[in-house]
């Protein structure tokens, strides 16, 4: 039986929760990344790259077997050798693994930064995707509160350089040292046990293994119980108080505004001391744009020596959504219209000269010569440069927006004639 050649082959659709970017969305994305790269160099953070895939144990140990990320959201599969592999859902665990396996202890304290795609199987919504992208900055091997402060100043400057600091608030808390946290945890368990009958099913499940997470429950049944729970401040040791005081003092000295949120927590046991989030009300439910904290126990949990560390991550898509409409100027510096084919070689010399002088430039040299100028004009570059023949002599013309860059492009282009 012959195939119906008229039958249209169905076009594959993108995987749900992924995105294709072109034009404005891609320009915003690139602007966030390039700004991050510029600022991280100002702070002396080295670029680091870690694999997109890791052994599943890296995340199962670091994120906790009982967390939603591990139990419901990770993209895990067995490879052909039978090893369980996971697409990374976050950066920190992979960087911690790399720190151990590559012997990077010799470089401690190590300041590193990276960015790239991450993967979580969750319900797609505004600012949240199944393949999403984050910026990440970590200081590994420093137990100084100044490391926490530097990361926060770094994040604050990044938001200002992006022009989105207005309306974004740094919320800050301390989880105390190990003794503080254990005492607080015991008090929380006692409090929640006494109100067990009023807790939601999710909070009851967390009570035994992750009681701190009940404090940030969004279930209305939990809120009165969580709001009446004891604060960490009652249980802070003098050392923990001094640590938090040093962080906040450094932030004040650097001019970084912050507010205390005594209910901001990190549920996993390896978190210590500083926990923070930069939040906004401009993105609806997805209000956190940068978040992080100190995780002094993670590297030991992954099999390394006890190593202090602190870091943060920020969603590139969310940061890009906050950019003003005119924040990203992706215009070319110059476009050349070749209005006579005999001038093509000369125009190519001009194009190369512009680019060698770090000017973004392109050329229009196809189609009807009479329409090339109009076609080039529609591109909207800072300088519109044309070249043609008049009485057998090369003739150049320029229309610019009056900017210094456009004037530079015009001068360079005219120099080839």
TrEMBL record:
It catalyses: tRNA(His) + L-histidine + ATP = L-histidyl-tRNA(His) + AMP + diphosphate + H(+). This is Histidine--tRNA ligase. Residues 1-21 are annotated as: Disordered. Pfam families: tRNA-synt_His (PF13393). L-histidine binds at residues 90-92, 120, 134, 138, 266, 270-271. GO terms for biological process: histidyl-tRNA aminoacylation. It is found in: Cytoplasm. GO terms for molecular function: ATP binding; histidine-tRNA ligase activity. GO terms for cellular component: cytoplasm. The keyword Transport does not apply. Keywords: Aminoacyl-tRNA synthetase, ATP-binding, Cytoplasm, Ligase, Nucleotide-binding, Protein biosynthesis. Residues 32-323 form the Aminoacyl-transfer RNA synthetases class-II family profile domain. The keyword Ribosomal protein does not apply. CDD domains: HisRS-like_core (cd00773). Its main location: cytoplasm. Homodimer. Its EC number is 6.1.1.21.
